[in-house]
Amino acid sequence: MDTVTGGCLCGALRFVAQGAPRRVGICHCLDCRKHHGAVFYAAAVYAAADVTVTGPSARYRGRVFCPTCGGSVLAQSGAETELHLGSLDQPDLFRPQYELWTCRRESWLAPVPGAAQHDRDRPREA
Q: What is the pTM of this model?
C-alpha cells in the first residue's frame, strides 16, 4: 500500500498519507473516548512529513476536525500524525498492533487477538 486517503463526513477536510504507518493502535483512555464519543479510538500513526492535509480545519489539543461537519479525522503530536481509522476511505486496511489503557476497556469488549496489551500508556521507544 503506497497511498492512504481519507477525510471528514462532508468531504471538505481531506488527507493523503504516503507509505506504511509507523504503528497502528487502539486507545481506551477517557480523553479518546470523550473526544470520539465512542468506547475506543483506533489510529494509524505516520511520520508527520508523510501526511498531507487539505481543506478547512479546527483544532483542540492536537486533535484536528472539520469545522463544518465536526468530523474528527486526525491528531497531531510532535513529529507524528495519527490518522483515525474510521476516517479512511477504504476500510480494513490496518490491524491494530497494540491496545492502550486496557484498564478502561469495556468489559464486554474482547482484546484484539495478537495485539500487545498495555494497562495504561505504551512504553516509550528508545
A: 0.91
